[in-house]
Design goal:
68% of the residues lie in helices and 2% in strands. The protein folds into two domains: 39 residues, no CATH class; 233 residues, MetI-like (MetI-like fold), CATH 1.10.3720.10. It is mostly helical. The N and C termini lie far apart (60 Å). Strand 1 and strand 2 form a beta hairpin.
Amino acid sequence: MTQVARQPEAGKVGKRAPAAKPRQRVKYNRRETLAGLAFISPWIVGFLVFTAGAMIYSLTLSFSKYNLARGTMKPIGFENYADLFDDPKIVAALSNTLIYTIMAVPLEIIVALGLAALLNQAGRGAGFFRTVFYLPKMTPSVATASMFLLLLNGNTGAINQFLGWFGIEGPQWLVDSDWIKPSIVLMTLWGVSGTMVIFLAALKNVPRELYEVAELDGAGVLRRFTHVTLPMISPAVFFNTVILSIAAFQVFDQAYLLFWRDQSGGAAGASDSSLFYAVYLFQQAFRRFNFGYASAMAWLLFCIIMVVTAVQRVVSNRLVYYEGEVK
Protein backbone atom coordinates (compact mmCIF):
# COMPACT_ATOMS: atom_id res chain seq x y z
CA MET A 1 0.00 0.00 0.00
CA THR A 2 1.11 3.44 -0.76
CA GLN A 3 1.23 5.65 2.32
CA VAL A 4 0.32 9.23 1.58
CA ALA A 5 2.09 11.82 3.68
CA ARG A 6 -0.24 13.98 5.67
CA GLN A 7 -0.10 17.59 4.52
CA PRO A 8 0.16 20.30 7.13
CA GLU A 9 -2.85 22.51 7.60
CA ALA A 10 -2.93 25.89 5.99
CA GLY A 11 -1.27 28.60 8.00
CA LYS A 12 0.77 26.09 10.04
CA VAL A 13 3.48 25.24 7.55
CA GLY A 14 6.88 24.82 9.23
CA LYS A 15 5.51 25.16 12.77
CA ARG A 16 5.93 22.44 15.35
CA ALA A 17 4.43 22.18 18.77
CA PRO A 18 7.06 22.37 21.52
CA ALA A 19 7.94 19.00 22.93
CA ALA A 20 6.63 18.56 26.44
CA LYS A 21 9.17 17.51 29.06
CA PRO A 22 8.30 14.07 30.38
CA ARG A 23 6.97 14.10 33.92
CA GLN A 24 9.13 11.12 34.78
CA ARG A 25 12.29 13.03 33.84
CA VAL A 26 11.27 15.97 36.04
CA LYS A 27 10.73 13.66 39.02
CA TYR A 28 14.09 12.01 38.40
CA ASN A 29 15.90 15.36 38.30
CA ARG A 30 14.19 16.39 41.54
CA ARG A 31 15.21 13.16 43.25
CA GLU A 32 18.76 13.60 41.98
CA THR A 33 18.90 17.15 43.35
CA LEU A 34 17.55 16.09 46.74
CA ALA A 35 20.03 13.23 46.90
CA GLY A 36 22.90 15.60 46.14
CA LEU A 37 21.74 18.05 48.81
CA ALA A 38 21.45 15.21 51.30
CA PHE A 39 25.04 14.12 50.64
CA ILE A 40 26.47 17.63 51.09
CA SER A 41 24.15 18.54 53.99
CA PRO A 42 26.84 17.79 56.64
CA TRP A 43 29.13 20.31 54.98
CA ILE A 44 26.32 22.86 54.63
CA VAL A 45 25.41 22.53 58.32
CA GLY A 46 29.05 22.73 59.35
CA PHE A 47 29.61 25.82 57.20
CA LEU A 48 26.52 27.61 58.50
CA VAL A 49 27.26 26.81 62.15
CA PHE A 50 31.04 26.92 62.39
CA THR A 51 31.97 29.38 59.62
CA ALA A 52 29.13 31.68 58.61
CA GLY A 53 27.59 31.63 62.08
CA ALA A 54 30.93 32.31 63.74
CA MET A 55 31.63 35.18 61.36
CA ILE A 56 28.29 36.83 62.09
CA TYR A 57 28.82 36.37 65.82
CA SER A 58 32.33 37.85 65.64
CA LEU A 59 30.95 40.82 63.71
CA THR A 60 28.50 41.38 66.55
CA LEU A 61 31.31 41.07 69.09
CA SER A 62 33.39 43.65 67.22
CA PHE A 63 30.79 46.32 68.06
CA SER A 64 30.61 45.39 71.73
CA LYS A 65 32.57 44.81 74.90
CA TYR A 66 32.29 41.18 75.90
CA ASN A 67 32.61 40.03 79.51
CA LEU A 68 33.74 36.40 79.46
CA ALA A 69 33.07 35.78 83.17
CA ARG A 70 29.48 37.04 83.03
CA GLY A 71 28.80 36.10 79.41
CA THR A 72 27.35 39.55 78.69
CA MET A 73 27.90 41.94 75.78
CA LYS A 74 27.78 45.72 76.10
CA PRO A 75 27.32 47.57 72.79
CA ILE A 76 29.97 50.23 72.30
CA GLY A 77 29.52 51.10 68.61
CA PHE A 78 32.72 51.68 66.63
CA GLU A 79 34.93 52.13 69.69
CA ASN A 80 36.90 48.92 69.02
CA TYR A 81 37.58 49.98 65.43
CA ALA A 82 38.65 53.45 66.57
CA ASP A 83 41.07 51.89 69.06
CA LEU A 84 42.70 49.95 66.21
CA PHE A 85 44.05 53.18 64.73
CA ASP A 86 45.39 54.34 68.11
CA ASP A 87 47.21 51.10 68.91
CA PRO A 88 50.91 51.30 67.88
CA LYS A 89 51.22 47.51 68.00
CA ILE A 90 48.62 47.19 65.24
CA VAL A 91 50.91 49.17 62.93
CA ALA A 92 53.93 47.08 63.95
CA ALA A 93 52.07 43.80 63.50
CA LEU A 94 50.69 44.81 60.10
CA SER A 95 54.14 45.98 58.96
CA ASN A 96 55.77 42.71 60.02
CA THR A 97 53.04 40.70 58.31
CA LEU A 98 53.30 42.72 55.09
CA ILE A 99 57.11 42.41 54.98
CA TYR A 100 56.85 38.68 55.60
CA THR A 101 54.26 38.33 52.82
CA ILE A 102 56.44 40.20 50.33
CA MET A 103 59.41 37.98 51.23
CA ALA A 104 57.68 34.62 51.55
CA VAL A 105 55.20 34.47 48.64
CA PRO A 106 57.67 35.03 45.74
CA LEU A 107 60.20 32.64 47.32
CA GLU A 108 57.56 29.95 47.80
CA ILE A 109 56.46 30.34 44.17
CA ILE A 110 60.05 30.12 42.87
CA VAL A 111 61.06 27.15 45.04
CA ALA A 112 57.84 25.23 44.39
CA LEU A 113 58.04 25.84 40.64
CA GLY A 114 61.70 24.80 40.58
CA LEU A 115 60.98 21.54 42.42
CA ALA A 116 58.00 20.85 40.15
CA ALA A 117 60.14 21.42 37.05
CA LEU A 118 62.73 18.96 38.36
CA LEU A 119 60.08 16.34 39.08
CA ASN A 120 58.54 16.91 35.66
CA GLN A 121 61.86 15.93 34.07
CA ALA A 122 62.34 12.89 36.30
CA GLY A 123 61.96 9.44 34.81
CA ARG A 124 61.15 6.23 36.63
CA GLY A 125 62.05 7.64 40.04
CA ALA A 126 59.50 10.46 39.83
CA GLY A 127 57.06 8.75 42.19
CA PHE A 128 59.74 8.20 44.82
CA PHE A 129 60.93 11.80 44.69
CA ARG A 130 57.38 13.14 44.79
CA THR A 131 56.86 11.23 48.03
CA VAL A 132 60.17 12.44 49.50
CA PHE A 133 59.48 16.07 48.61
CA TYR A 134 55.96 15.90 50.02
CA LEU A 135 56.92 14.35 53.37
CA PRO A 136 57.85 17.71 55.01
CA LYS A 137 54.28 18.86 54.43
CA MET A 138 53.09 16.01 56.63
CA THR A 139 55.38 16.98 59.52
CA PRO A 140 53.46 18.49 62.48
CA SER A 141 54.06 22.20 63.06
CA VAL A 142 55.39 21.63 66.59
CA ALA A 143 57.98 19.14 65.34
CA THR A 144 59.00 21.49 62.53
CA ALA A 145 59.40 24.40 64.97
CA SER A 146 61.51 22.27 67.32
CA MET A 147 63.76 21.27 64.45
CA PHE A 148 64.23 24.87 63.28
CA LEU A 149 64.97 26.03 66.84
CA LEU A 150 67.98 23.72 66.66
CA LEU A 151 68.91 24.60 63.08
CA LEU A 152 68.68 28.37 63.59
CA ASN A 153 70.47 28.58 66.92
CA GLY A 154 72.99 31.39 66.52
CA ASN A 155 75.75 29.64 68.46
CA THR A 156 75.37 25.91 67.90
CA GLY A 157 72.86 25.73 65.04
CA ALA A 158 73.58 23.50 62.05
CA ILE A 159 73.03 26.34 59.55
CA ASN A 160 75.63 28.61 61.15
CA GLN A 161 78.07 25.71 61.47
CA PHE A 162 77.66 25.01 57.75
CA LEU A 163 78.30 28.68 56.94
CA GLY A 164 81.38 28.57 59.20
CA TRP A 165 82.97 25.96 56.94
CA PHE A 166 83.20 28.70 54.27
CA GLY A 167 84.42 31.36 56.67
CA ILE A 168 81.00 33.04 56.91
CA GLU A 169 79.83 34.15 60.33
CA GLY A 170 76.16 33.27 60.60
CA PRO A 171 73.68 35.72 62.10
CA GLN A 172 71.71 35.34 65.31
CA TRP A 173 68.60 34.15 63.48
CA LEU A 174 66.27 34.10 66.47
CA VAL A 175 67.58 37.18 68.30
CA ASP A 176 68.62 39.75 65.70
CA SER A 177 65.52 41.71 64.64
CA ASP A 178 66.81 41.92 61.06
CA TRP A 179 66.91 38.11 60.74
CA ILE A 180 63.73 37.13 62.57
CA LYS A 181 61.48 37.36 59.52
CA PRO A 182 63.95 35.56 57.20
CA SER A 183 64.12 32.75 59.76
CA ILE A 184 60.33 32.38 59.65
CA VAL A 185 60.46 32.43 55.84
CA LEU A 186 62.95 29.53 55.93
CA MET A 187 60.60 27.59 58.15
CA THR A 188 57.73 28.33 55.76
CA LEU A 189 59.70 27.01 52.77
CA TRP A 190 59.93 23.67 54.55
CA GLY A 191 56.27 23.01 53.72
CA VAL A 192 56.25 24.28 50.14
CA SER A 193 55.47 20.85 48.68
CA GLY A 194 51.72 21.48 48.58
CA THR A 195 52.28 24.32 46.11
CA MET A 196 54.78 22.13 44.25
CA VAL A 197 52.12 19.48 43.57
CA ILE A 198 49.81 22.06 41.98
CA PHE A 199 52.61 23.31 39.75
CA LEU A 200 53.54 19.75 38.80
CA ALA A 201 49.97 19.05 37.66
CA ALA A 202 50.00 22.25 35.60
CA LEU A 203 53.33 21.37 33.97
CA LYS A 204 52.02 17.92 33.04
CA ASN A 205 49.18 19.57 31.11
CA VAL A 206 51.39 21.75 28.90
CA PRO A 207 51.20 20.30 25.35
CA ARG A 208 54.51 18.85 24.22
CA GLU A 209 53.85 20.10 20.69
CA LEU A 210 54.38 23.69 21.84
CA TYR A 211 57.89 22.86 23.06
CA GLU A 212 58.69 21.07 19.82
CA VAL A 213 57.55 24.01 17.68
CA ALA A 214 59.48 26.47 19.85
CA GLU A 215 62.60 24.31 19.61
CA LEU A 216 62.29 24.16 15.83
CA ASP A 217 62.11 27.96 15.81
CA GLY A 218 65.42 28.08 17.64
CA ALA A 219 64.14 28.93 21.12
CA GLY A 220 66.49 28.00 23.93
CA VAL A 221 65.62 26.60 27.35
CA LEU A 222 65.05 30.02 28.95
CA ARG A 223 63.01 31.28 26.02
CA ARG A 224 60.84 28.15 26.02
CA PHE A 225 60.23 28.60 29.74
CA THR A 226 59.25 32.27 29.49
CA HIS A 227 57.24 32.04 26.25
CA VAL A 228 55.67 28.59 26.55
CA THR A 229 55.73 27.24 30.10
CA LEU A 230 54.87 30.38 32.06
CA PRO A 231 51.91 31.45 29.88
CA MET A 232 50.47 27.93 29.92
CA ILE A 233 50.76 27.53 33.71
CA SER A 234 49.81 31.15 34.51
CA PRO A 235 46.41 30.10 35.99
CA ALA A 236 48.26 27.87 38.47
CA VAL A 237 50.69 30.69 39.26
CA PHE A 238 47.79 33.06 39.89
CA PHE A 239 45.95 30.53 42.06
CA ASN A 240 49.02 29.78 44.17
CA THR A 241 49.83 33.48 44.53
CA VAL A 242 46.36 34.24 45.87
CA ILE A 243 46.31 31.26 48.24
CA LEU A 244 49.83 31.87 49.54
CA SER A 245 49.13 35.58 50.03
CA ILE A 246 46.03 34.82 52.10
CA ALA A 247 48.00 32.30 54.17
CA ALA A 248 50.90 34.73 54.64
CA PHE A 249 48.62 37.45 56.00
CA GLN A 250 47.35 34.90 58.53
CA VAL A 251 50.76 33.48 59.48
CA PHE A 252 50.61 32.24 63.05
CA ASP A 253 52.12 28.80 63.66
CA GLN A 254 55.68 29.62 62.64
CA ALA A 255 55.95 32.88 64.60
CA TYR A 256 54.08 31.62 67.64
CA LEU A 257 56.01 28.37 68.00
CA LEU A 258 59.39 30.02 67.49
CA PHE A 259 58.92 33.15 69.59
CA TRP A 260 55.64 33.32 71.51
CA ARG A 261 54.94 29.81 72.75
CA ASP A 262 55.09 30.88 76.43
CA GLN A 263 54.45 34.02 78.41
CA SER A 264 58.12 35.05 78.43
CA GLY A 265 58.28 34.99 74.65
CA GLY A 266 59.95 31.64 74.12
CA ALA A 267 63.55 30.56 74.12
CA ALA A 268 64.68 33.38 71.87
CA GLY A 269 63.01 36.23 73.74
CA ALA A 270 60.38 37.60 71.40
CA SER A 271 60.21 41.25 70.40
CA ASP A 272 58.01 43.44 68.25
CA SER A 273 59.96 42.23 65.20
CA SER A 274 58.29 38.84 65.56
CA LEU A 275 54.85 40.21 66.45
CA PHE A 276 52.65 39.23 63.53
CA TYR A 277 49.04 40.27 63.16
CA ALA A 278 47.55 36.85 63.89
CA VAL A 279 49.80 36.46 66.94
CA TYR A 280 48.68 39.82 68.34
CA LEU A 281 45.05 38.90 67.63
CA PHE A 282 45.54 35.65 69.56
CA GLN A 283 47.04 37.54 72.48
CA GLN A 284 44.11 39.95 72.62
CA ALA A 285 41.54 37.16 72.47
CA PHE A 286 42.98 34.35 74.58
CA ARG A 287 45.45 36.03 76.91
CA ARG A 288 43.74 39.35 77.62
CA PHE A 289 40.24 38.00 76.86
CA ASN A 290 39.46 41.18 74.90
CA PHE A 291 37.19 39.39 72.43
CA GLY A 292 35.50 42.51 71.09
CA TYR A 293 38.81 44.11 70.15
CA ALA A 294 40.11 40.83 68.73
CA SER A 295 36.97 40.50 66.59
CA ALA A 296 37.51 44.00 65.23
CA MET A 297 41.09 43.03 64.41
CA ALA A 298 39.84 39.93 62.58
CA TRP A 299 37.44 41.95 60.44
CA LEU A 300 40.13 44.50 59.63
CA LEU A 301 42.35 41.66 58.43
CA PHE A 302 39.44 40.25 56.41
CA CYS A 303 39.00 43.60 54.64
CA ILE A 304 42.74 43.87 53.93
CA ILE A 305 42.84 40.37 52.43
CA MET A 306 39.77 41.13 50.29
CA VAL A 307 41.42 44.29 48.92
CA VAL A 308 44.70 42.50 48.18
CA THR A 309 42.86 39.63 46.47
CA ALA A 310 40.80 42.07 44.38
CA VAL A 311 43.97 43.85 43.23
CA GLN A 312 45.54 40.50 42.30
CA ARG A 313 42.39 39.60 40.36
CA VAL A 314 42.52 42.84 38.37
CA VAL A 315 46.21 42.37 37.58
CA SER A 316 45.57 38.77 36.51
CA ASN A 317 43.26 39.92 33.71
CA ARG A 318 46.33 41.07 31.80
CA LEU A 319 48.80 38.36 32.81
CA VAL A 320 46.86 35.10 33.09
CA TYR A 321 46.11 33.01 30.00
CA TYR A 322 43.21 30.58 30.04
CA GLU A 323 43.24 28.01 27.23
CA GLY A 324 40.27 28.36 24.94
CA GLU A 325 39.43 31.86 26.18
CA VAL A 326 39.03 34.51 23.50
CA LYS A 327 40.13 38.00 24.60
